[in-house]
Structure formats: C-alpha cells, structure tokens
Amino acid sequence: MSVADIKKNMQAKMEQSINAFKNNLTKIRTGRANPAILDTVLVDYYGSMVPLSQVANVSAIDARTLSVQPWEKPMGAKIEKAIRESDLGLNPASMGDLIRVPMPPMSEERRKEMTKIVRHEGENAKIAIRNLRRDANEAVKKLVKDKDISEDDQKRSEAEVQKITDKEIAAIDQLVVSKEQDIMAV
C-alpha cells in the first residue's frame, strides 16, 4: 500500500463519516417541518414493521405542517397510530385519506436542548475524523518501519493528512453552526 492509497482510503472514510453526520442532523427536529423527521417511524404493514416512507408519501405542506399520503387506504389508521406513538411528540390529524402532521412550536428550553444534541453529534463526528487521521498516520509509520518510504516522505504525508483532517473538521463545524441557526430561528 502506498501513501497515496492510504490518503485516498482515509478521504473516502471521512466522506462516509460526514455523510452519516449529515444524515443524523436531518433527524434532529428544528422549528420547521422536515419530512426526514418521520424517517425513524416504523409502521405495522401486514405483520412486519417497515419505515413510514415505504407505505406512504411524506411531504411538507408549509413551514409548520407535514402531509402523509398512504398508498393504501386501510394503512391510514396504522400510520396515524405509529406517528402518535413515536417519541417525536407529534399529534397527526386524519383528513380523509390524507394525514396532516402539525409541528408544534418548540420552547426556548427545548431549542437549547436540541443545540446541545447537535453539538454532541458534531463532536462524535470530529472524533471519527480524528480516529481516521490516527489510522492513516499509523499506516504511514508502518511504511517507514518497513523501509518502503523515507522519514521525509512520512513528514510530508502526515502534514497532508493533517490538512485534510482540518478541512473535514471545519466542514463539520460549519454544519453544526448551520443546524444551530435553524433550530434557534423562531
């Protein structure tokens, strides 16, 4: 394995970590209605639990309301029950075969609590990035030990790995700040 392979592998894993972090952020509730909030809701579909997105179309009607359109008429009551029983604190209302899910406004205390959760998720993502940096540097040190590259090459590659790490951590910080602004916007 060469230094270029190590860096390429590290960058690919860092991208995966950032994508996972972005995915986690979509599940954190802001003041606005976001269909991704219902991604974690499981519905009883003829005896098996399936994600809501597999039995209904979820979309945002406006900034404070989601609409859930079941693909099968008898699923409406089950979907409504699943949303109500989820730990999201939502109260759906059925209107014919359309289910409206109003997003209750969050209190100031709840908003601050959510920003703490976002910061915690951001810190976990940074830890994952730093672990990948450590693994890459250890792989480079192993190449030096095996006499495949020189110590000068090691120093150069460690500096490049650090530069990549700094860039990815800055991206995480930017995502955290952006999400906090979304949450604190009334």
From TrEMBL:
SUPFAM superfamilies per the UniProt record, alphabetical: Ribosome recycling factor, RRF
Listed InterPro entries: Ribosome_recyc_fac, Ribosome_recyc_fac_dom, RRF_sf
Family: Belongs to the RRF family.
Residues covered by the Ribosome recycling factor domain: 21-184
Annotated GO CC locations: cytosol
HAMAP family: RRF
Lineage: Bacteria, Pseudomonadati, Pseudomonadota, Betaproteobacteria, Burkholderiales
Entry keyword set: Cytoplasm, Protein biosynthesis
Subcellular location: Cytoplasm
Role description: Responsible for the release of ribosomes from messenger RNA at the termination of protein biosynthesis. May increase the efficiency of translation by recycling ribosomes from one round of translation to another.
Designated name of the protein: Ribosome-recycling factor
GO biological process: cytoplasmic translational termination
A single GO molecular function term of this UniProt record: ribosomal large subunit binding
